[in-house]
Write a structure and sequence with these properties.
The complex is a heterodimer. Chain A is mainly beta. Chain A is 0% helix and 50% strand. In chain A, strands 2, 5, 6, 10, 11 and 12 form a 6-stranded mixed β-sheet that branches. Chain A is globular. In chain B, 0% of the residues lie in helices and 48% in strands. Chain B has no helices and 10 strands. In chain B, strands 2, 4, 5, 8, 9 and 10 form a 6-stranded mixed β-sheet that branches. In chain B, strands 1-3-7-6 form a 4-stranded antiparallel β-sheet, with no helix packed on it. In chain B, strand 6 and strand 7 form a beta hairpin. Chain B is globular, with a radius of gyration of 13 Å. The chains are: A mainly beta, B mainly beta. At the A-B interface, strand 5, strand 6 and strand 11 of A face strand 4, strand 5 and strand 9 of B.
Chain lengths: 114, 114
């Protein structure tokens, strides 16, 4: 079945530091890949997505590239801000058959200190 | 435009009572999903509706859980005879039926079973 393995947290960085959160996946076929962000007390917000190999998703300074050869979708940001403090979830959706639900990683708590 | 809405935002109930949680998807979205987020289990898929097709109930944890979707729009998740282990945040998401399966989430309902 599908699975997502995400870098364990928590991660604490100083403002303007470089961020990488690793994500690898197991799936059949060519899944869509997503990063969602959850701010304290809120629901999940779509941060970025990529739907085919070598696609790069980007939003709000965050980027992730769909790497089929390494089955990875690592999240990066060059300079984090205090407002980026949240929990980040990597997820995939297999588009084969009827199973279109998202499979999530365990989440990575990011805290950015001023 | 309007996003996914859920009600109530918080629900406190006593063990053994039934509860109903409501989800209004984004207008025009044909697919609707329910997930559960709990500390011990992370984000789990519960049930998936696609148009007029029979729902995919493969994620429901027990027969105390059921859901319906009326008129291809609003959905209600019902939990009968609630147990303390049902305490969690219940998230609803909706999407178009397309090649990306990009899902947009509501704010969730926090259920506490005393």
């Amino acid at each position: 079945g599908n699975s997502v393995t995400q870098m364990e947290g928590p991660v604490t960085l100083s403002e303007e530091a470089f961020l990488t959160i690793n994500c690898t996946y197991t799936a059949t076929g060519y899944p869509s890949l997503f990063w969602y962000v959850q701010y304290p007390g809120e629901g999940l917000q779509l941060l970025l997505k990529a739907t085919k190999a070598d696609d790069k998703g980007s939003n709000k300074g965050f980027e992730a590239t769909y790497r089929k050869e390494t089955t990875s979708f690592h999240l990066e940001k060059g300079s984090v801000q205090v407002s980026d403090s949240a929990v980040y979830f990597c997820a995939l959706s297999s588009l084969s058959g009827s199973a279109r639900q998202l499979t999530f990683g365990s989440g990575t708590q990011l805290t950015v200190l001023p | 435009g309007a996003g996914v809405s859920q009600s109530p935002s918080n629900k406190v109930t006593e063990k053994g009572k039934d509860v109903e949680l409501r989800c209004d998807p984004i207008s025009g979205h044909t697919a609707l999903y329910w997930y559960r987020q709990s500390l011990g289990q992370g984000l789990e898929f519960l049930i998936y509706f696609q148009g007029n097709s029979a729902p995919d109930k493969s994620g429901l944890p027990s027969d105390r859980f059921s859901a319906e979707r009326t008129g291809g729009s609003v959905s209600t998740l019902t939990i009968q005879r609630t147990q303390q282990e049902d305490s969690a945040v219940y998230l609803c998401a909706s999407s178009f039926t397309d090649s990306t399966n990009t899902q947009y989430f509501g704010p969730g309902t926090r259920l506490t079973v005393l």
